[in-house]
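Task card 7
Instruction: Convert sequence to structure tokens.
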Amino acid sequence: EVGDWAYLQLTSGTSGLPKAIIVGHDPLSRYFAAFEAALDAHPNDVNVIWVPFFHDMGLTSLLFAVQQGSQLVSMPPELFIRRPLTYLEAMSHYGATLSWMPNFGFAHIVRRVDPAHLRGIDLSSLRVWLNGAELILPETVSAVCQLLAPCGLPPGTIVAGYGLAECMSAVTFGRPGIGLRTDHVSAALLHNEQRAEPGDGAEQSPTIDLVGCGYPLPSVEVAVLDDSGTALAERQVGQIGVRGPTLFSGYYRQPELTARSYQDGWLLTGDLGYLAGGELFVCGRSKDVIISGGANINPEMIEQVVMDVDGARVRRAASFGVTDPQLGSEAPVVVIELRKELAPAELHAQSSALRRRVRAELGVQLGDVRCVPAGWIGLTTSGKTMRGAVRKKYLAAGYRPELPGMALLRAAGADPTLLEQALCALVGDMLGMEAVQGDDNFFDLGGDSLAALRFILSVEEATGKQVPAEFFQKATAASLARLLVGETATAPAILPASAAVSTSQSSTDRSLQARLLRLHALPRSLRNRVRRRIEDWALRRPYFEGVDWLVRWYRHTWVQSLFYPRESHLVRQFAESMKTSGSQVGEEIALSLTGNVILNRLALAGRKDGQRDAQLSIEELLKVLDGPFAESPKSPYVTVTGAHHLSRALHAGSGVIVAGVHSPMRIAVQAYLSSIGVPLLLLEQAELS
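Output:
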């Protein structure tokens, strides 16, 4: 029915508190009709994407394919980052006619795909390849067209678009077959007079190249407005306004915010742009929002976290985005004005603390934390931070985003030990981790596809070597160090003296390793007593808080080898026999150890209460295991733990949620539950993240 909701689309929350956008069935249907007309789409189309489904671009792609009855081929973002050639191979194999992604994806293809590997790839079926969701760099598009021309990429296939979640996804779209239009406008007139007049490119009058974002979708109106809401003439810069039947139905339970988003029927986007020949050109933002990898980041939130962390020493803070041509996206930067000068060690500690806090609270990876003397950051007469002026000063000073670990990486040379420590430091800087181990998996620590791309580029810049694709098989600092120095030997399954490497990279690390070696020399009985004390402490905390702490504690290899050597070895054997990926084995061990501790305590409590400890017998579960994969080796340790946990869950309620387990165990649990009619919800680890 008209007025019914289809779904709530949550914003990322990095540009403010997360907002739930109400998407109605009627505007969504009208949007799909307009989108279909703009693309000249039909049911025989094949869309190949890697954009995740939690992004509006990915979600509407899925729903559009369902509504139209066309084919959608989706691949994980991590796979695209690891090997972008797979994406091109998929488009060739399935005969893709449509695809879309942010600009940094195009830059990644240019950077990581070897022309020699393109032999046999056919992109001649591709009709529309949309570049959208962030700043579009004309040089990136030109480079990808040149790279893929031998693959039959038709001229004019890559088009630009502009959109936002409040308009379902797209507002404007380039015309297929025509390609991108680049406008060369006078930089002086654009910045000083808010006019986008064509420039001659002379040295005394430099120009700025802006990429056209296409024309409004059918039934959608776009205008450029001044502060009073009056439409401006062509080539006059103002705020972009949108209206039409494809707009969202409001923000969930935020009527005042919804009302403020409109002016005289126009949805105010907060973006600055101009119209030229009916085509929209985006040239800035009325808000100082940073767009990195297609996500919006509010600089005020970064600045607030900075002041919360160290307001006593920080006088002012200014955050903004800096374009990274290599990455093809913006990198969030924060400049900090200190009340007094700090020693280098204090500066490093403060920078690391800020990176960790911003990462933890906002999920944002800072490209640079730059401490400057008093007087650097200016304010307006109303007391607002002049971010634009600070950004210009930052660039004029020759600064650019660089992580502290880069210096260590450059100095490491070909020494495997120093290289591993430097890589650990770099991962810690990037992900906001205080200590990173050599065998910690990058993605298990919270790294996403864009963070992985930044990490790879940083390593390549510092070492002058290309990061091989094999890195993603384990995605650890230790494995990458071996790859970079050309070693092929793998580390033992359990490293008794594996120590955490602090991002400060001082003598503390060597001291920690020495202490761990001494701990391994302690009697087993003493280590068991210490282990029980730690477990007792964790299990006295609120349940989920304690479980979360235990999982993180058990992820450390040195904890596994020091306190749980036999159990860890059994789980590792079982996981590897099931062909579990190397990056997931550590997670399997942590989850198994956590489950085992909790179940043992439950069993102990049951015996104290005089209750019979209900559990599924090994024989019963083996019958289930013999069904789906009769030839697979089985581990009694994992079998008993899994059965025990399962029986407890069945006694606790009517349904079971299984999350983060490897496929064979999941199949066994699914088979058993279906045989006794118990509802089951399966969650992948990525969905939990």
